[in-house]
Amino acid sequence: MRLTLVVPCFNEVDVIERFHQAVSRELAATDEPYEVIYVDDGSKDGTLEAVAAIAAADPSVRYLSFSRNFGKEAAMLAGLRHAGGDAVILMDADLQHPPELIGRMLELHGRGFDQVIARRTRAGDPASRTFFARSYYWLINKWADVELMDGVGDFRLISRRAVDGLLKLEEYNRFSKGLFAWIGFESAVFEYENVKREGGRSRWSFPKLFEYGLDGLLSFNNKPLRAAVYMGTLLSLIAVAYAIWVVIVTATQGVTMPGYATLIAAITGLGGLQMVMLGVIGEYIGRIYYESKQRPHYLVKETNLTPPGVVPGGPAGPAR
Ligand code: UDP
Ligand code: MG
């Protein structure tokens, strides 16, 4: 069995060398043939040069480099497209995904699981982040069409047929957690202790996490649109009832003037609600807009794969 390791890297020059040594040791220990594909996502700190040097010294290393930063989703997609293995492991370059787990993943894969998922514990995370994550997963599992699990990221082994399934999903807005869940297949989950980043910086600030969360909610269902329909219906019913009441009062007691508070509350409340609904509709239209442009997910600047150049295919989220 041939194994492909796909590693997206963005400004990881501090750790990439150490990462490569660590995974090479683990991969050699598995006694399976393997290749490592480094996808440089438009790094500006010399990651590309480091990766090219690693590739020059190690024939099992392949790499490609994007013309700019297209995002991790695009980098993973590129790696998956070029992966030749019977199984693919997706792994971060920052050593937060312990290379020691590769053996465990292969073992579970050998038992017939198409996806072997490593789930991190939340040890060491700030309490606020844990709280938001928990609430978010509760919400998304209530709403979205796919089931997502807290602590599950992109660190996983994917079998060839599951990779082929993933590659059929060509959407531009790639919410990979959802895509992995969407393809299905038998999956095994095991836990590992959360690891702190060893160097470089995480790309996740709170606003970015918020946007990512929103992406997840919107990418996999049209329930927000449904909610708008229900809310609108409910409000219309209330409005009709209120109108009837006003007419009755006017007919029986003549025109009475009070009602200022009701008026202002209704105007501001409904105004706000309408803006929110418009925003929801706008989000979906924005997605349609990006999909309809049919742009490639990424452009390749340099690679030791052949042939280099523009990789055809569907659309990766707008650069964020
Ligand atoms: N990454 C990438 N493109 C980006 C941002 C990140 O390829 O635009 C890579 C990064 O080099 C790392 C992985 O994605 O290998 C995870 O990134 P990070 O550690 O910043 O995320 P976190 O671990 O905090 O979720
Ligand atoms: Mg990380």
From TrEMBL:
Keyword Ion transport attached: no
| CDD domains associated with the record | DPM1_like_bac
* Coiled coil feature spans: none
Q: Does the keyword Transmembrane apply?
A: yes
User: Where exactly are the transmembrane stretches of this chain?
Assistant: 227-248, 260-285
- Residues of the Glycosyltransferase 2-like domain: 5-164
The alphabetized UniProt keywords are: Membrane, Transmembrane, Transmembrane helix
In which family does this protein belong, per the annotation? Belongs to the glycosyltransferase 2 family.
Q: What protein is this chain from?
A: Glycosyltransferase family 2 protein
**What is the native source organism of this protein?**
Kribbella sancticallisti
